[in-house]
Amino acid sequence: MGGLPKRQRVAAYAVILRDGNILLSRLSESVTPEELWTLPGGGLDHGEDPRDAVVREVREETGLDAAIGETARVYSAHLPGVWRDGRRVDAHALRIVYEGWVPVDAPPPHVVEVGGSTMAAAWHPVEAVLDGTVPAVPMVLEALADHRPFRHQRLGAYALVVNADRVLLVRISARGFHSGAWTLPGGGLEHGESPRGAVLRELREECGVDGAVGELVAVHDEHFSGTAPSGRYEDFHAVALAFEVSVADDAEPAVAEVDGTTEVAAWVPLADVESGALPVRDLVREALRGAALRRPRTD
């Protein structure tokens, strides 16, 4: 094989996962007559940054605008004697594989590029790729074996607002984890922000009301994986600080934040929380228990 023309190609690809599915591109019949799927991506143009290249290739092959992670894995394949452009060559392929993600409200994928090396784009179950039901190039299996979800740890501050026999709750929108469930108003701390300051800011954004922050009543944490509002698949660890907060007796909650993870803010009967009639996050019950333990006994 030493006399064959040498060809080296550098290409960038993205592993894009969502809710147990992976975004793949089907190679065109000009590349292979058989059905075969690969990661969206392709060769770098001369002088092109690999991150710019993968964004461009994902758009051309799937019609979607992707965000790309900061790090990548590099795979090297020496392919002596393969066919390229109608003749045998001694090929060396360097493949830079990034983590990528697309918005949660992205449209169905479709090929934009005309006359390229892909003929279709689709979401496929990861399990179907791993068990061979969806035929994929070896690079896809290698990338899936090496992929680890982005680890995101967030400290949040939340408000427990109880007025007589009701508690102020918010319902999580389709943009957030656990959509449709009810939880305490609150959210992640901004860099340098105090927890009590974050509680008041989040209360205004999610419920449109002001309050006075009292004592810390619970520290709650949960660990799960899922699709974040950005569309990125994350290994998520949330640590929540719940504070008692008082508001005006005539306060009427209304969501003030636009395009957030809260779709409804409302006073909810405590009886509905205690009976399980309402789907609430564990943070709500833990904060209520913590507040009850702080109150002096009257018997």
Q: What is the CATH superfamily label of the largest domain?
A: Nucleoside Triphosphate Pyrophosphohydrolase
**What distance lies between the first and last C-alpha atoms, to the nearest angstrom?**
91 Å
Number of helices: 6
Which CATH top level class of the largest domain fits?
Alpha Beta
Silhouette: elongated
How many discrete structural domains? 2
Strand content: 35-45%
Give the second-level CATH assignment, the architecture of the largest domain: Alpha-Beta Complex
User: What is the H-and-E element order?
Assistant: EEEEHEEEHHEEEEEHEEEHH
CATH topology of the largest domain: Nucleoside Triphosphate Pyrophosphohydrolase
Radius of gyration: 25 Å
Q: Name the poorly predicted regions.
A: none
Number of extended strands? 15
Largest sheet: 7 strands, mixed
Structural class: alpha+beta
Helix content: 10-25%
Mean pLDDT across all amino acids: 93
Question: What order do the helices and strands come in, and which of them pair?
Answer:
Elements: E1 6-18, E2 21-27, E3 37-38, E4 41-43, H1 50-62, E5 67-84, E6 87-101, E7 118-125, H2 126-130, H3 138-146, E8 150-160, E9 162-163, E10 166-172, E11 182-183, E12 186-188, H4 195-207, E13 212-227, E14 233-246, E15 262-269, H5 270-275, H6 282-294
Parallel strand pairs: 1-6, 8-14
Antiparallel strand pairs: 1-2, 1-4, 2-3, 2-7, 5-6, 8-12, 9-10, 10-11, 10-15, 13-14
